Automatic annotation (TrEMBL):
<feature type="repeat" description="TPR">
    <location>
        <begin position="112"/>
        <end position="145"/>
    </location>
</feature>
<dbReference type="InterPro" id="IPR011990">
    <property type="entry name" value="TPR-like_helical_dom_sf"/>
</dbReference>
<keyword id="KW-0802">TPR repeat</keyword>
<dbReference type="InterPro" id="IPR019734">
    <property type="entry name" value="TPR_rpt"/>
</dbReference>
<keyword id="KW-0175">Coiled coil</keyword>
<dbReference type="Pfam" id="PF13424">
    <property type="entry name" value="TPR_12"/>
</dbReference>
<protein>
    <submittedName>
        <fullName>Tetratricopeptide repeat-containing protein</fullName>
    </submittedName>
</protein>
<feature type="coiled-coil region">
    <location>
        <begin position="118"/>
        <end position="145"/>
    </location>
</feature>
Length: 249
């Protein structure tokens, strides 16, 4: 793809942004603006960068110009989860809070997504009071599945608060073995969310099976888009390279 394509330049700029190379980010964005000053992709990326830089007012102004904020919310969630995985809970929580301040008030469902994730972050940080207060705000969602998830998490938080028992949540870090139906249920929407596609996009998802897991993952990863037909001839267990060692031996 031509490096002078707006989409390509935005991808390059985003890579520089994520690498904290602000100068190269600005250079790439400037080149993209010269090609298409009013590009939605540029405004979307600038909104992401504004959130990273704690420029809430600028982020809000840019978000108000965008027809869809799905990618910005996804970016915020990925960034916050990455911070939380590194035990930087407060920074992850602040990322969600900044997004809430910047999100337009009429984007109710997107705000509820962020509120749920913020409540989950508070719960992981063992701040049960804030978790409950935040999750209650997410109950205004009109999405039935989302409300069910919110209520389920609230129930767990309330139980932990009243009983004094530790709050049991799926491990946020990738690679954690799935050992129960409950963990799969909590993870299901995150998997679907991560695999969502925009019109015109095409991709292939590779799904692994943990070699120690006794839980069948296929029913929970059987998405309608893209659709895969699992064939025994190509199915392999995820064995951390063990099969190669066995062949070599």
């Amino acid at each position: 793809m031509s490096p002078y394509n707006v989409g390509r330049l935005c991808s390059i700029a985003e890579a520089h942004m994520n690498s904290n190379n602000q100068k190269k980010y600005e250079d790439s964005i400037a080149r993209a603006r010269r090609i298409s000053p009013d590009s939605k992709a540029i405004k979307e990326l600038e909104a992401k960068n504004a959130l990273r830089a704690n420029q809430t007012e600028k982020a809000r102004d840019l978000m108000n110009q965008l027809p869809s904020l799905k990618n910005v919310v996804r970016f915020t969630n990925n960034r916050a989860v990455a911070l939380i995985q590194c035990d930087r809970f407060q920074e992850g929580i602040e990322a969600y809070k900044q997004a809430l301040v910047a999100l337009p008030s009429n984007k109710v469902e997107l705000r509820c997504i962020v509120l749920y994730n913020l409540g989950l972050a508070y719960a992981r940080a063992d701040n049960l009071e804030e978790a409950l207060a935040t999750l209650k705000q997410a109950l205004i969602s009109q999405d039935k599945q989302r409300r069910t998830r919110v209520k389920s998490l609230m129930k767990k938080v309330l139980h932990a608060k009243k009983s004094g028992e530790p709050l049991l949540l799926p491990n946020a870090k990738s690679g954690h073995p799935l050992t129960s139906q409950e963990q799969l249920g909590d993870l299901d929407q995150d998997i679907v969310y991560a695999m969502s596609l925009d019109p015109g996009e095409s991709c292939c998802f590779r799904i692994f099976f943990h070699y120690q897991s006794e839980v069948p993952l296929e029913p929970y990863l059987n998405l309608k888009r893209p659709k895969f037909i699992l064939r025994e001839s190509i199915k392999k267990e995820y064995a951390l390279g063990l099969e190669k060692l066995m062949k070599a031996g």
